[in-house]
Amino acid sequence: MIQPQETWERAAAVDEIPEGQVVAATVGGKPIALYKVEGEIYATDDICTHECVSLSDGYLEGCVIECPLHQGMFDIRTGKALCDPVTEDLAVHRVR
Question: Which residues contact 17 (CB under 8 A, 6 or more apart)?
């Protein structure tokens, strides 16, 4: 069986994402948050799983994004919900 080819969509150039910052992007009509930590790029859904708020407006410390509304935190590498009030993990996306 042949696997379908993966389709990539451009979200941003690496130099458009400042080190230690989060940048909002839209890919395929979906809001995505892009992060650069120690030169590595990460991507997650931009909408918090607890409330409908943009994580790109949140606070990035290391590999943890804090939601600006209720201070829920996620690991941007895995999407893992790290503390209350968030209980649902965040979707992460492959980058290249």
Answer: 23, 34, 35, 36, 41
